[in-house]
Amino acid sequence: MSRGFYVGRFQPYHNGHQSVLEQMACRVDEIVIGIGSAQISHTLANPFTAGERVLMLIRSLSSLKCPFYVIPLEDVQRNALWVAHVRAMTPPFDTVYSANPLVVQLFTEAGVDVRSPNMHERLTHSGTAIRQRMLDGKAWEHLVPPAVVDVIQEIHGVERLQQIAGSD
Ligand SMILES: Nc1ncnc2c1ncn2[C@@H]1O[C@H](COP(=O)(O)OP(=O)(O)OP(=O)(O)O)[C@@H](O)[C@H]1O
Ligand SMILES: NC(=O)c1ccc[n+]([C@@H]2O[C@H](COP(=O)(O)O)[C@@H](O)[C@H]2O)c1
């Protein structure tokens, strides 16, 4: 049984993340997804709660060809302890998929096999670019799975982000 681990903040979950998970689904038996910085919400860079991000992921992955687990992970103050913290909170995994330099470094130092997933139209498909489009009143819906559009509408996510920007 092989299990792959993928972590992100998913603020919001977008088509780039979906393409990584679809690549992983062909390569491992099960996928463990960590929702990083789970304790942070209602900021410009992290507008959505961990629970809202759980909804985005689970609804978007309903037809993924591989069993998956979604685990919210709070940050810890010491990077040197983070891998142990992740391991304590997740089902066991053998491979990590990440392009985040710190994540790659910490897992490599811990002796874990780390792979870099192919980037999917990175210029447009980043959380930062999507949040900026929401703030600018530009179309963003085509950059995320349809289920994420539904969740963000349900929670009035664009209005929340605009209010946070207004009170900054
Ligand atoms: N377009 C993409 N294609 C493939 N992988 C991506 C893409 N965007 C992000 N990732 C990867 O997904 C993981 C989680 O990234 P994250 O949740 O920070 O998304 P992000 O779009 O980079 O967000 P932000 O811009 O808010 O920092 C990282 O390993 C990141 O490299
Ligand atoms: N010390 C820590 O808590 C620590 C270290 C490395 C990564 N992380 C988290 O892992 C996630 C990585 O995701 P991104 O690739 O989206 O940045 C982030 O939520 C980040 O905060 C946390």
From TrEMBL:
<keyword id="KW-0067">ATP-binding</keyword>
<dbReference type="InterPro" id="IPR006418">
    <property type="entry name" value="NMN_Atrans_arc"/>
</dbReference>
<protein>
    <recommendedName>
        <fullName>Nicotinamide-nucleotide adenylyltransferase</fullName>
        <ecNumber>2.7.7.1</ecNumber>
    </recommendedName>
</protein>
<keyword id="KW-0963">Cytoplasm</keyword>
<keyword id="KW-0548">Nucleotidyltransferase</keyword>
<keyword id="KW-0808">Transferase</keyword>
<keyword id="KW-0662">Pyridine nucleotide biosynthesis</keyword>
<dbReference type="InterPro" id="IPR004821">
    <property type="entry name" value="Cyt_trans-like"/>
</dbReference>
<feature type="domain" description="Cytidyltransferase-like">
    <location>
        <begin position="5"/>
        <end position="133"/>
    </location>
</feature>
<dbReference type="GO" id="GO:0000309">
    <property type="term" value="F:nicotinamide-nucleotide adenylyltransferase activity"/>
</dbReference>
<dbReference type="InterPro" id="IPR014729">
    <property type="entry name" value="Rossmann-like_a/b/a_fold"/>
</dbReference>
<keyword id="KW-0547">Nucleotide-binding</keyword>
<comment type="similarity">
    <text>Belongs to the archaeal NMN adenylyltransferase family.</text>
</comment>
<keyword id="KW-0520">NAD</keyword>
<dbReference type="Pfam" id="PF01467">
    <property type="entry name" value="CTP_transf_like"/>
</dbReference>
<comment type="pathway">
    <text>Cofactor biosynthesis; NAD(+) biosynthesis; NAD(+) from nicotinamide D-ribonucleotide: step 1/1.</text>
</comment>
